[in-house]
Specification:
- With 126 residues, the chain is α+β, with helices and mostly antiparallel strands.
- Helices cover 46% and strands 12% of the residues.
- It has a single domain, classed as Alpha-Beta Plaits (2-Layer Sandwich), CATH 3.30.70.
- A hairpin with a 2-residue loop joins strand 1 and strand 2.
- Helix 2 packs across helix 4.
């Protein structure tokens, strides 16, 4: 499924792969989507512990707002990546019936530093 939808898929193990979402993020930027917290129903941010969904929503919503006012827009790329990964996870669930975890980062080295339980969303693990 991932190979059919993405230009660069690097298999990391039997149940893990890295996706290069750079081109997809650039295309999404051109569309200028109006994203809201509702577009991120399963997103969690690394480094933040949340006890309730209301806590998660508050943290993710603050992150979304902060990223939109980022002058360099580098963090906005992560927002778009998180949105794409939400779509990937949804498609995996619909097509296979399985849930998957995923995390995003600017590169594989940074992603590997994020604990598995705190995935922000780019590595896809089944």
């Amino acid at each position: 499924m991932l190979n059919a939808n993405f230009k660069l898929v690097e298999k990391a193990s039997i149940d893990e792969a890295y996706l290069d979402l750079t081109d997809d993020i650039q295309r999404l930027k051109e569309q200028k989507p109006q994203l809201t917290i509702n577009d991120f129903p399963t997103t969690h941010l690394a480094g933040f512990t949340t006890k309730t969904d209301d806590d998660r929503i508050e943290i993710v919503n603050k992150w979304l707002n902060d990223c939109q006012f980022d002058d360099e827009k580098r963090n906005y790329d992560l927002v778009l990546g998180a949105y794409l990964v939400e779509q990937i996870r949804k498609k995996v669930k619909e097509e296979t019936g399985f849930f998957c975890s995923a995390g995003i980062a600017r590169n594989k080295v940074t992603k590997s530093l994020i604990p598995t339980q705190c995935n922000l969303l780019f590595r896809v693990r089944f």
